């Protein structure tokens, strides 16, 4: 499975302990998302389209209504980077 550079950046951020917060409308549909690093900084590199793509591929998931985090499959797919070794 090929993963784009933008997907790699988001997965790498999530693998280091970040998460994605979502905002839902009254019908329960996701209308906005915010990517948060492990240090609490907001990162605007995760668009709605990219979020949907990661969710559809089951690389991220939410448990118990909490924020979206990386899954085991996502950890297998992400490539290591110099600052993560």
UniProtKB/TrEMBL annotation:
Belongs to the UPF0386 family. It comes from the Bacteria. It holds the Pfam family YjhX_toxin. NCBIfam families: PRK13687.1 (NF010240). InterPro entries: YjhX_toxin. It comes from Hoeflea poritis. This is UPF0386 protein OOZ53_13495.
